[in-house]
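Minutes, project huddle
Topic: does the predicted pose make sense with fe (ii) ion bound?
PN asked that the exact inputs be recorded in the minutes so nobody has to dig through chat later. Recorded below.
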Amino acid sequence: MAMAGPVPVQSTPLPKGIDIKPRRMKFAYESSADHWAGDNPVLTRFMEALSMLFPEGERFFVESVKHYRDKIVDPVLEKQVVAFAAQEGMHAAEHHKYNLRAAGPLTDRFEGIAGQLRHPFARRVLSPMNRLAITVALEHFTAIMADELLRDPSYTDLMDPEHAKLWLWHAVEETEHKAVAFDVYRAVGGGYLRRAVVMQITTFLFALASVRLLAGLLAKDGKRPAPRSFANFLDVAFGSPGFFRKVFPSWLDYFRPDFHPWQKDNSDLIAKWKARYAAS
Ligand SMILES: [Fe+2]
Ligand SMILES: [Fe+2]
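Predicted holo structure (tokens), as shared on screen:
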């Protein structure tokens, strides 16, 4: 059926220089040290725990957004959804390889924790709008963590350079597409209350899954890390300033009724990464 009237605008103009662009990358982290983050087993396994959430999580994001494909009529947003799906597809594949290095045959079991989101039971109990709201919440999560990782080099300075390369690449692409799921949610009538409530539940479950995976990965090592490794990890994550304490104000931004991911224009961080990446 032909549509009457002009096509509604559903997308948000991206800052200058921002282009949602899937990049094929090559990483050579296979031969890196086992404790590649700060020579600290707890910090390393925590990063690996986050990585375990990505493959299934990102497939879930793509499915949640694509469910509303027919409701997206703005050709700009339509193109952004395709690019978003391509980026997340690449992240899922790359992090799966990364996870195999970290956990070998246990990878599927660890990845299955986020895979619960895609389980037929979850599909039955979570409406498409709730699945999209979970996606928007987790995309905000990845966006604010990406911002901090790109902004403060002290974190990637702790990492083996090839690992840092993977995390920075992912952070850049998360920043580029940070508003796509949000714009789709808004375009299909997603409201404030659902967004705010779902963010709180999702944050709790995200923290729980991360801790569970960290415990699983440490148990796989079969060796209890030294107390100072735990203390150092807690300091990097929650100390003063501490990664998660620094991103907390950005987490709170999400609860403003007029919030939009690009209200915080951090496109300069992408430009810096591009310049550095091109130089290397
Ligand atoms: Fe991603
Ligand atoms: Fe993403």
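Observations noted during the meeting:
- The longest helix spans residues 192-221.
- The CA atoms of residues 65 and 132 lie 6 Å apart.
No decisions taken; revisit at the next huddle.
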